[in-house]
Amino acid sequence: MVLIMVANRPEPKGLPMKLLLHACCGPCSLEPVRMLLAEGHSLTIYYANSNIYPATEYDHRLQTLLDWARAEGIAVVEGAYEPDRWEASAGAVGEALRKRSQAAEGGGATDAQNIAETNAPTETAAHHVPSPDARTEPRCRACYRLRFQEAARYAVDHGFDGLATTLSVSPYQHTSAIEEELSRAAQQAGIAAVFEDFRPFYPAATERSQALGMYRQNYCGCRFSLDEMQTQRQERKRQRDRERARHQAETAEERAREAERTAARKAERAAYDAKQARKRAILKELRGQAPGDRD
Ligand code: SF4
């Protein structure tokens, strides 16, 4: 087994090989495919993602990938979609973590709430990209393991020399665990693990996928990550509401003073207008009198 470890670009890579690229979706495939092709590898994409929930989301991501890959002339193979297998491995780990988290919190906050609060953007770092929460690592590791093992089996059965993944483009993933699990799966299958840390290219992948009008999901894939995303969204809304309320309270006095100034200006204007109206009425009356009447 050959392990090719590459930190960042541009650097000379290992020998070009017939590579099976495990891909989670279309947007995450853009930059890894571009770079692996530039390195001379011959690529086939393997979509093995039993983690994705619900099935409609799985289909949507697959279709987005297929549409793009067809236009690029890259072969895509769909693996088995077996959510039950995922539930029996990563899902079970996720449930155990959730129970432990709830027990630690005295049954108060849910795991998703805890993770969401940890990852919620702060006032000073509104555009901060959160690191993956360490508490999800065992679940995600089991998820990577299942998918990479399936991909490695396919790679061996179909004469591929190595296995790579697009997962390492996302800063939201556990990069070290991805590298370790890719290496483990490839080693067990007797093929090369081609791991590259594609995270520096995440902004480019985001821009390109937006420019291409690709469907871009807003959660990793499993039901836990869907919960976490929704909880994070609710937490961000609560935070915005709190900030709005605080701003309203802080500016209440100034707004009251401004309202008083506006009312005073209006009253002044109304008094001026009334005075002008009286003047015009007097002039009109004077003009209306006959000349002989004036003396
Ligand atoms: S968050 Fe993503 S990597 Fe982690 S278990 Fe869920 S689908 Fe898998």
Question: What does this protein structure show overall?
Answer:
With 295 residues, this protein is α/β, with parallel strands linked by helices. It has a single domain, classed as Rossmann fold (3-Layer(aba) Sandwich). The chain is built from eight helices and six strands; from the N terminus they run E-E-H-E-H-E-H-H-H-E-H-E-H-H. It has helices spanning 30-38, 55-72, 83-104, 111-119, 137-157, 175-189, 202-211, 223-288, and strands spanning 3-6, 18-22, 42-47, 75-78, 162-165, 192-196. The protein has a six-stranded parallel beta sheet with strand order 1-6-5-2-3-4, with helices on both faces. Helix 2 (55-72) links the parallel strand 3 (42-47) and strand 4. The model is unreliable at 1-12 and 117-128 (pLDDT under 50). Bound molecules: iron/sulfur cluster.
